[in-house]
# Entry
Amino acid sequence: MVKPKTTNVRGAIASRAAAGLLAVLSVAMAPGSVALGESLPAISAADLRAQIASMQTLVAACATNSEACDSSKVSADGNLGEPGKDGGYAQHWIWLRTAMAEAHKAKPDARVEAMKAATARLDELEREAAAPAAAPTTQPNARKQVNSILARPEFQQVKGTSWLDRVAARFWAAIASLFRGAGAVGHSAPWIGPLLEWGFFLTAAAGLAFVILRALAQQRLQVKLSTGPTANAAIWNRESTDWAEHAEKRAAMQDWREALHGLYWAAILHLESRRAWRHDPSRTPREYVRLLPPGSEQRDALARLTRTFERVWYGLESSNGTEYREARALYERITAVANPATASAPLATEGAA
# Structure
């Protein structure tokens, strides 16, 4: 392995440093430049405008002919006013001297572009020199202007933060914190998002399927009940038996509310199978009672069963096993009679009510 030659590297660094120092000294010793520590001569605004006009002419000539790019013709630096005080500053032309020196050796295209940039900078200096210096605003005047602005009517309607605003701000901050927490959980457990999405979809699908099946079951029942009276008797009797069995199953589970619901409809369908009235699903529970012959045993039993059903089912009151057994006894009284219709009223209708 060859050992690097550190002597040559150090010599190269030293030569580059010397070249940089010579460049700085050459700029410092150039005609019109100011040595370090030397004060600049004072110039007036008119002198500055004359210098700018002369430099514009020099730049235009340099753009046309490289021989005119003479950095020694650039104006000397000067102080306009007193630097550090209001309106005073030092005007340095070293940037233009450097541009002239480089343009003298540059190619024509590069020289033209450099002079365009110099012209733009001189035009900006000319506009600044032509603009009158604005008088500085003293602090008392600034305070007076601020007070006059704040005294305007539009600033008199400003109110402080109320307690309602603070409560609303805390509420929305809590909501934002909740969403930020949800976002953090989503980043740490990316499977939660798809799980919730599929859970929502499956729940919606199950609910839709339940509604469709319930509607189809009701339609089948309506179709069965809308057939002829002879066929309807067997169908309604079967439906009555199904409702009664459903009531027994719910009672075994101590679901007394649903058990009473099933027992009531078992009684209604039993009476309809015995042609106590014509089928009409728009009737209310009390209308069914009024369709039975007044003073009959079935009317009294159905009236008591209806009151219990309305109180528990529509009134959302609780029930118990004792109440269900009483309702069961009423149902058995209703089904014990062979035919609820009397000889004078063989088939009850809406007009009989």
In short: The longest strand covers residues 78-80. The radius of gyration is 53 Å. The CA atoms of residues 151 and 157 lie 11 Å apart.
